[in-house]
Amino acid sequence: AGSQGPNDKNHVPLGLLYVGTELKKAGYDVKIHHLLPDEFSDGLKAMRARSPLWIGLSVLSGMTTYFAAQLSRQIKTELPGVPVLWGGHHASAVPLQCLGTSYIDYVIIGEGEHTAVEFSETLLRGGDLSKVQGLCWKTPDGQPYTNPARPLLEDLDTLDLDWELLNMVDYFGNYSGGYRNVAFFSSRGCPYHCTFCTTPSYTGKSFRAHSTEYVLRHLGYLKDRYGFNGVFFSDDNFMINRARGLEIIRRLASRGIAVNTLDVRINQLNEKVVKGFADAGANGVFYGFESGSDRILKLIRKDIQVEEIKAKAILLREHGVSAWASSIIGIPTETREEAYATIDLGMWLRDNLTHNSVVSNYRYMPLPKTKLLDLA
């Protein structure tokens, strides 16, 4: 954690949970630490007490990268000899840059569940690291070496989630509107091509989804055991398959579980979809409107225009569905006038979305391995 401060601790670390579950299934004793920077000291004490085979960090670009580097340096000082591995979006995008540091020993590129297990087996038994798909490592003379990539997993249902690897009571704080909410991935990948986004290079341009039964089983378990009666879907795009998305929302509602946010693109919203949200009790959607300039929207390949953004906001309001709408200031080539147009559109959305909606504006972050970074 670290990019948004304490708010990060409201969301279950799903990436680590997937990897941890596969390691546990393979017979390893796994401990997940979900740490803010001021918790590093206590976390390191707990790690030292376990004498781990290796320590892995899930790393996003930005402030999380900074704090992950801080923690990795401390691990190297306080747990000498314990390998440090980085995974996640940032490490996958720039693995050789990561391995160029003294405090990162290994990098896993892309989806890490099976790679983590194979890496652990190889490390434990002294096998050939060059044969572990998806692993980047250093030769004895310190040179970085990149193994062939691991193919994306087609059947996501073969991955389980062992929620008991986490203390779920820690996530009771994500409570609003009478709902105790939990974050959940129902799918991976996005076929769209926004020029600022790293998703296609990480989880692929194809859309791979858990079955509806898988989603219902896990969220039903969390409701029955811990009282989570609301879900924040963290998918890159929940509505790639509209029929599937609406079915999940309806069937969760019948189990007393409300969908309180899901990620969607504005061009996926129409009368049938939004009415389906409202009828099934989906309380909110998240979308990026990104800019108030049609030129910028075309530049970033968002495939929408300002008038459509406004029309879909009215549609959501008419059906009583709230929105978390976000935009970006500072996109390369943006003029002062275009920046003001984005602010103006945000103010218009504030006035025209439902009363409990949220409109946010963020500064552009040049993420590695994106088309917009090349332009910048």
Walk me through this protein's architecture.
This protein is α/β, with parallel strands linked by helices and 376 residues long. The protein is 39% helix and 16% strand. The strands form four sheets. Strands 1-2-3-4-5 form a five-stranded mixed β-sheet. Helix 1 packs across helix 6, helix 8 runs parallel beside helix 9 (242-254) and helix 12 packs parallel to helix 13.
Mean pLDDT: 94
Q: Order of helices and strands, N to C?
A: HHEHEHHEHEEEEEHEHEHEHEHHEHEH
Specify Rg, calculated over alpha carbons: 21 Å
The biggest sheet amounts to: 5 strands, mixed
Helix percent reads 25-40%
The strands making up the biggest β-sheet line up spatially as 1-2-3-4-5
Count of DSSP helices?
14
Oligomer: single chain
DSSP strand tally: 14
Q: Looking at the structure, what is the overall shape?
A: globular
Strand content: 15-25%
Look at the helices and sheets and give the structural class: alpha/beta
Low-confidence stretches: none
Cα(first) to Cα(last) distance is 28 Å
Keywords:
single chain, 376 residues, alpha/beta, five-stranded mixed β-sheet, four-stranded mixed β-sheet, 14 helices, 14 strands, globular
Question: What is this structure, in a nutshell?
Answer:
By secondary structure, this protein is α/β, with parallel strands linked by helices.
SSE blueprint:
Elements: H1 14-25, H2 40-50, E1 55-58, H3 63-78, E2 84-87, H4 89-93, H5 95-99, E3 106-108, H6 113-125, E4 135-138, E5 144-146, E6 175-176, E7 179-184, E8 187-188, H7 199-202, E9 208-209, H8 212-226, E10 230-233, H9 242-254, E11 258-261, H10 271-280, E12 284-290, H11 294-299, H12 306-318, E13 322-329, H13 336-352, E14 358-363, H14 371-375
Parallel strand pairs: 1-2, 2-3, 7-10, 10-11, 12-13, 13-14
Antiparallel strand pairs: 3-4, 4-5, 6-7, 8-9
Helix pairs in contact: 1-6, 8-9, 9-10, 12-13
